[in-house]
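Appendix B, Record 12. Input sequence as logged:
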Amino acid sequence: MNNKTEPANNVLCPNVPPAQSFDSPKMAVDRLVEIYQTSSQFLCTHFAAALAGDLPKSRVRAFYPEVRITTTSFAKIDSRLSFGHVSEPGTHATSITRPDLFRHYLEQQIDLLIGNHGVSVTVGISDTPIPVHFAVANDLSISVPQDGAADFTLRDFFDVPDLATTNDDIVNGTDKPKSDGTMPLAPFTAQRVDYSLARLSHYTATDPEHFQNHVLFTNYQFYVSEFESYARRMLNDPDSGYSSFVSTGNVEITTADGTIDRVDKLPQMPTYHLKRPDGSGITLVNIGVGPSNAKTATDHIAVLRPHAWIMVGHCAGLRNSQSLGDFVLAHAYLREDKVLDDDLPVWVPVPALAEIQIALEQAVEDVTELEGFELKRVMRTGTVASVDNRNWELRDHSGPVQRLSQSRAIALDMESATIAANGFRFRVPYGTLLCVSDKPLHGELKLPGMASDFYKTQVSRHLMIGISAMETLREMPLERIHSRKLRSFDETAFL
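Logged structural output:
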């Protein structure tokens, strides 16, 4: 039997199934999909009619579906697991968007909940309306006009995004239980996820469904052509496990000789995806230069719950013993980027993650064919400083250089600390392997001729190290890479 939610002010809502308990993760997600598709189609139909002049007789509203679990026991959970269980008895719930896109993730997380607590999950509708902008996002035949462009006032008939409730309170640890005591089940609410899905399409010019579980960030477009060349080699190898390559504009090829037309204007953060059928492939994002871009990219990619992200960019070497082309494996970060200070105070340590560090060091050994003490010829491990001033060299050196020396920093860039800090904040395993492109403190500036030779010899090798590390991490059990080091006292059950 279906129910119909109709508030007292005669709001028009879709008929959706009533709340129901499930012991099967697949059936639970099937119901989430049913509710979401019914609700979003309901909004799309009425919105399209309104644009055509057939205004609804009352407000039109549909709600996100939700997953809810109630436990009454402090039962001991496998202490090795950092996710898949709630931290204390009570009711935990989360609103859900795009269950079709997140099916594998949702089934995985729900299965762990049911198995660890021995109780069913309940699927029904949440109390959060779906903004019409997000409902129509996947219907290419409909677009929401600018405010005032339509013949009716949008907010009089449909719900719009509410930034007051689209925040990072859960991941920042500042969220408060609802008035009925319900606690969060996932790190992001449905509206926060929808907001980022829309932003991802805008900034990267690729749809969210193309993103893979392993994300490489770079700050130079030079890496893209190398990534495409590698992708084509993989598509030419039937045993590689890779199935397609996606370029900007959602251009997808499945064969090594597939054609990719070059776009006239690149998006702000050009993104490319070497896909595997299970989503365990590799995504490369050129975030450009600066901590603001690094924060923007990771703020939005985080809602996709990747298994790891790694920065493979260029940096300034700070030690006289370094040479252009040397690698830097970050094991600590000096945060002078400032963009995350309000979300993650600078006194919060951002630790190196052993699983990522080992994978990166092993990848450097494999690609350079050096190991042990000999590896020190081409790689240093130490603190990476990230700043927000691209021309920091032009300022008085006494202050900045003294701080860099006191911190024992060996390299400086503008993105790595931001990416690591947001990885820590969002519980996404992170790492950094940089390549020295200049040594400003020692008179070796990045000049055009030097840069050209440097890029030709180093870009391919650097990228291959990042790819090799990701392929190692792909084989690692999920419960190992998502370790307890990234979890706080009271964590959500979902990754």
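The first strand starts at residue 3 and ends at 4.
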